[in-house]
Amino acid sequence: MKHLFDKFINRSIDLIHRGIVVYRAKKPYKNTNKLDLSKFTLTFEDHFDGDTLNPEVWTHFRQGERKGGYWDAGQAFLRDGNLIIRTEYKEDGKYGPGWYCDRIDTRRLFEQKYGYFECRCILPAAQGLWAAFWLSSEAVRDFVPGRKGTEIDVFESPLWHRILKKKENDLITSNLHYGGYGAGHRYKNVAVTKANDPYRQYNTFGVEWNEEGYIFYVNGRETGRSRFGGVSEAPEYLLLSVEIDGVGGKPFPGWSGEITKNAPDTFPVDFVVDYVRAYRYGSVSGDG
């Protein structure tokens, strides 16, 4: 019973905190400060130029059922100097029939506290799924204050389906989560931001994180800032992922729409990542 209750709570949180806030009207963010990279030193960079993912940098830590589909390492590969995370339906998939995508992260291989973190990518053009670049730590799953560890969603892309309603669909969201993923979960949507034709062109998405808070950027322009939950003081690892709306490995309508409502020729659809970078403040040493 507890397992079912936890699933109900997690699904309710997912629908309430993710679904409602995305459609709430937001005033345009007026602060257009430009990113200043001169105060940073590069500490991590992957251009995905090899034949396979570098196992000294990336790991497939979590595999199997994830929301409305499955994470499977076979869905992430390198091609033409890019990381590709592919989403498609498989009748004979590793975990049975269903929708397959993947997540990779630098857990226990590269972790850093404070700095600037950025990826350059093209988003997957389909409803019922979303791509993301985010930061996290082991403590995020626990019922603890945000300063002990906060999920920092540099960007998530759940709004492609708005094109069906003749609304802007070139919007991404930037979000913060802490307190675990059960009843103690706390969430804030920091920004909903227009990108530049992100399903066909590369855009850069970044976050500057320091003792004062989080500053989010799209293409080098500030889009929002927050210190929600108390600023994380824990080293965090980097993640790139695609997720499918649903529960128990089965698709279900959510904040990104419903994957089964796409045109038959939509899939496979790819999340294309050109690079991931991390920088440390030039005057800081010893963390991470």
Written description of the protein model:
The structure is a single chain. The chain has 288 residues and is mainly β. It has one domain (2-281): Jelly Rolls (Sandwich). The chain has one helix spanning 2-23, and strands at 40-46, 64-66, 69-71, 76-79, 82-90, 98-101, 103-105, 111-112, 115-122, 129-136, 151-156, 171-178, 186-194, 203-210, 213-218, 221-226, 236-244, 246-247, 250-251, 269-281. The strands form three sheets. Strands 1, 2, 3, 4, 5, 6, 9, 14, 15, 16 and 20 form an eleven-stranded mixed beta sheet that branches. Strands 7, 8, 10, 11, 12, 13 and 17 form a seven-stranded antiparallel beta sheet that branches. Strands 18-19 form a two-stranded antiparallel ribbon. The N and C termini lie far apart (40 Å).
Helix content: under 10%
Query: Please, how many helices?
Result: 1
- Beginning-to-end CA distance, first to last residue: 40 Å
Number of strands: 20
Structural Rg: 18 Å
What's the pLDDT, averaged over the residues? 89
Topology diagram in text:
Layout: H1 2-23, E1 40-46, E2 64-66, E3 69-71, E4 76-79, E5 82-90, E6 98-101, E7 103-105, E8 111-112, E9 115-122, E10 129-136, E11 151-156, E12 171-178, E13 186-194, E14 203-210, E15 213-218, E16 221-226, E17 236-244, E18 246-247, E19 250-251, E20 269-281
Parallel strand pairs: 3-6
Antiparallel strand pairs: 1-20, 2-3, 4-5, 5-6, 5-20, 7-17, 8-17, 9-14, 9-20, 10-11, 10-17, 11-12, 12-13, 14-15, 15-16, 18-19
